[in-house]
Structures are given as structure tokens and as C-alpha cells.
Amino acid sequence: MRASFLLLILVTVMALSAAIAAPPTDTAQGAAGTAVSGDALLSDEPSLRITGATVEPDTQRLIITGQKFGNHRLPTVKLDAVVLGLTSASDDRLVSDPLPSDLTSIGRHTLRVADGNDRTRFAIYQLVIDAPPGPGPGAGPAPGASVPPAGLKTNQISVIDRNGDVGWGTSIALGANGNPLILYLDYTNRDLKLARCRDGACTGADLVALDADGDVGWFSALVVGTDGLPRMSYFDKTQKVLKFGRCADPECRDFTTRVIDTAGALGQYTSIMLGRDGLPVISYHDKTHGSLKVAHCQDPDCATLERATVDNLGNVGWYNSIALGADGHPVISYFDAARRDLKFAQCANPYCSSARVTTVDIGGVGLGTAIVVGADGLPVIAYWDFFNDNLKLARCTSADCARASLSVIDSKGAVGTSAAMILGADGHPIISYRDHTNRALKIAHCVDPACADVRISVPDNQGSVGSHSSIAIGADGLPIVSYYDETNGDLKVLHCGDASCSAAAH
Predict the structure, then answer these.
(1) What is the DSSP letter of 298?
(2) Which residue, of 40, 163, 463, 501, has the fewest CB within 10 Å?
(3) Cα–Cα distance measured from residue 208 to residue 181, given in angstroms and rounded to the nearest whole number
């Protein structure tokens, strides 16, 4: 890289306090470390952080600033697959030897710093080195160049649980204290687990198994009541029933569960919301009868409830997603497995004892849906077009979605599985989903309500990641996403640095 090259740092941060099976195989001079137990996830030790990185134009040394690098032993610093030698190191600043020319080439580079004292704590930055902006040193940005605005935050990725194969079917919501709660399946033990994040970015969490009675925790869905207490629906695979759980305190130290429906094998797909009365409303698939059903709780504990069959034509109700319509009645998007269509139900009352059912899109679409209701009161549905392997969006132009505007959001490769959606602080849809071709987590942020302009980012492509995603808006107004790391069998969390989850505006 010539001295005039401009280093633009697009950061995807992983601030991890976690256990690994063995120390790193590549170590810098003087580095050493031993594996720690999984209890490290529950420790209060501050996470290692990278707060900045730059290349000195004259010396080509990499300058890294941060916290908790370890001041007793040298940390391990890797750029791409190369271990860098260090000229100097302290607890908050590292200076590398001059970089080889192949490490300063234009494009994406991965920077990893492992703590010199505790090898299980490390952080990752993804660096993008752009072409020089002008003819020589001191030249300003080229016209139209993307320059990170002052004070721009960065994406931060954390591994929350790595104890076994964990992180299936995640569902994320903000707790009463403003910190995220994440519900998910521990596939190794077949338990329903909850991660209580310790801060708004979820850089660390306390983990608890809520239900370990059999093979439970599939297709979990989470909502936090107006009383600050988490409530959830999930599938008990052992009994083949839909279950409801309620926490007696905001941190879910006391948890009770009950069976919602036993009329067949049901609950494989479920979604939950709060009705206008503040009581839980649950949509779910009845496999025995091939139908979509709704249960409306009559009290906060769901001790009494009313059940209704919404649609039973064919084999319907797969991948259902529920939201509160503008009239205060549930609206539901779901997949018709018999016809391979995307369908929509507008309930005529809070109990959904009758509903208007509409086919929104046809021909190999809807295998995975997410629904929100916009500020205009009209439903918006994100879904996977599995016939074409695209992420699509349906914007209903009427409350019953009898008419809808359909658009392709992303068609680059095989994309669109595990779609989850939320309205951002600007009121526009933000969608998390998996890019199967590149095995990556992607984020699509609609710049306008009609999604005519969409910004797409790839905040994580380390290994095979991005499935089982769920998205919420944090207390700071920025998206936060839970998802599964298939390569390592981990539960991960992305805290976005901006509404589009990219380090710099596009």
C-alpha cells in the first residue's frame, strides 16, 4: 500500500468473554495461555475491546488502541492468517512491526487480538482498505467517496453461549432494564435456555436453562409484558405439544410453564405478541390437522385461554409470524405448504375466532415469514422466495392485504432464509437474514417506508453464520440481532453501530 492510501476502517467487533477448547496454535513471541471453563461466560471480568486501528503511512506499522490487551504477556495479533510481530505493547495500545505488502492490499482484512493473559478473551475487527483518494499525500477524499462521519459507532459481535451446540431458534426482546433477553434452544441438551444480557449491547450474559423436561425449546418465541415479565411460547417435542412459559420476575429466576394445546401434534411453528389488552396472543401450527391456530390468553399466566382455528384449507400455518393490526386485532403471515404460497390472515376480533384469509404471493414463496405493521397501519411481510432464492418484501396496500406491492430486496446469490424484521427508530423496516451462498449474516435497512431504497450490509461472515436470526431495537435505538454460528455451534449477538449495521454510511 502506497503512503497515500486511505485506511477506512469498517469495524465488526467481537468482544468476547468465553471458553475455548484449547489455546491458539499460532502464538506471538512470549505468548502463552490455557483454556478456561465455561464459567468464564459468567465472570465479571471486563471484555477485551478494540477501539481503533490505523496504519502509519511512513512506517507501515499497524497501531491498535483498545482495552484489556494484557500487560503481563504479549497478546497475539493476527492480520488475516499472519501473526504480526509487535514493536511495543501495553494494556491499551499495540504497535506492530512493519506490515508485509500483501497485508496492505486493497480489500477486506481481518484483525484479531487475543489477550496475553487470558487466551480465551479476544476481539476481531474487519478492516477494509480502500484505494487512494487522490494523486498524492494529503489529498482529500475523492468526490462521492464514503467517509465515516465523526463519532460513528461500530458494529459489535459477541459470542454469548458456546457450551455445546446452542443458539437454535433464537428470539430476542428488551427486558425491563433495557438489556436484551434471548430465548433459544440448547440443541446438545434439548433444553429451552435464556440469556440475560448484562448491558445494552449484550457483550456478556448470564445463562439459565428454563425448561429441561424432555426434548423442549423448539421454535421459541419471546415477548416482554407491560409488567416487565418475559413470556414465551415453544414446542415440546417429547410430548408434541405447544407450551407457554411465564417468568415471575424480570430476570426469570422463577419460571413456570403450562401446556397450551394438546389436540394433536402442534406448536412446531409459533409466534407470540401482546394484544391491546396486554395479554399474550399466540399463533401456531397444528400439524395433525394441517391448520393455523391462535390462542388468546385470558390472564397474564395464560391459565385460561380461548383457542381458534384460523385457516385449515390444505396444510397451512408453517413459519407463522403474528403482529398487532391497526384495529387492535392480530394479523398473521404464514406458509401454505400444500400450495407453496405466502398467506395472510386478518383477524376480525382479538380472539381471531373469524378471519379474512388472503394469498399474498404464489409459487414457491413464504418458507419463512416475518410481519410488522407500519406507521400507516398497513402490514409489511418479509419472506423467503425459495423458488428463486431471493429475499422478498410484501407491502400490503390494504389492511386485509388483499392487495400488496411485492418487491425483491436481495437477489445476490441464495439469500433470504431465517428472515426476521423490526421497525427501526426511523419507522422503516430492518431485516436480518442469512446469505446461504456466502454463509453470512446480512442486514437490509429500508431507507424509505416503501423500501424503494435499501441498504444491505454483511456484518458477519466469519464461518457459517446467520441462521435462526431474531432482531430487536435496543434502548439506544440501534438494531440488535441474535443468531446461530453453525461453524462453532454458538449463540452470537450483533449490536449494530448504525441503522444499517455498517461501519460507514453507504
Answers:
(1) S
(2) 463
(3) 11
Average pLDDT of span 155-176: 96
**Domain spans of the chain?**
7-129
Q: Which of 194, 188, 112 is nearest to 157 (CA)?
A: 112
| Strands in 133-254 per DSSP E | 155-161, 166-174, 180-186, 191-197, 205-211, 216-224, 230-236, 241-247
Label each residue of 258-297 as H, E or C: EEEECCCCEEEEEEEEECCCCCEEEEEEECCCCEEEEEEE
Dihedral sign for Cα 17, 23, 26, 30, please. positive
Scan for cell 418487491, then name that residue.
Answer: 407
Distances in Å between the Cα of 428 and the Cα atoms of 97, 303, 423, 454 are 46, 36, 5, 10
- Are β-strands 155-161 and 12-14 bridged in parallel, bridged antiparallel, or unpaired? parallel
**End-to-end Cα, the chain, rounded Å:** 24
CB 383 within 8 A of CB 368: yes
d(CA 254, CA 154): 36
- pTM equals 0.71
- Could you give phi then psi for residue 41, rounded to 5 degrees? -65, -25
Segment 398-456, tens digit of pLDDT: 999 999 999 999 999 999 999 999 999 999 999 999 999 999 999 999 999 889 999 99
pLDDT at 28 over 80: no
DSSP 179: -
Q: Which residue has the cell 410488522?
A: 372
- Cα dist. 203→4, 188, 425 in Å? 36, 23, 22
Question: What kind of fold does domain 7-129 have according to CATH?
Answer: Immunoglobulin-like (2.60.40)
Among all chains, which residue has been given the C-alpha cell 380472539?
351
Secondary structure (3-state) at 157: strand
Single-letter amino acid, residue 23: P
Rg (CA), the chain: 24
Cα–Cα distances (Å) from 77 to 19, 113, 299, in that order, read 19, 5, 55
Residue 303 phi, psi (nearest 5): -70, -35
Rounded CA-CA distance 234/216 in Å is 8
Q: Kindly tell me the sign of the dihedral angle through the C-alpha atoms of 80, 482, 469, 398.
A: negative
The 10 Å Cβ neighbour count of residue 239 is: 16
